[in-house]
Amino acid sequence: MEKSEWDELNNLEQDVLSDRREPHQFGDKTKWPIDEQVETILSQAEVEIQKLNKARLVARDSLSRKMDF
């Protein structure tokens, strides 16, 4: 590989590394600009995930009670 190709690849890698951002809440627009419609969909998805997690816990508790009998 020629020196210039190596430099170009190295520069691309540095660009990618410098563009990494820390995880954040979806509403933090300072790190990732998010379209309002997408933000709404993501918020609704988070609510649905919370509902599913609660339902899973209730089902597990119910199953556990049945197994005790």
UniProtKB/TrEMBL annotation:
Region (Disordered): 1-30
Residue stretches of biased makeup (Basic and acidic residues): 17-30
Name the record gives this protein: Uncharacterized protein
Organism of origin: Candidatus Giovannonibacteria bacterium RIFCSPHIGHO2_12_FULL_43_15
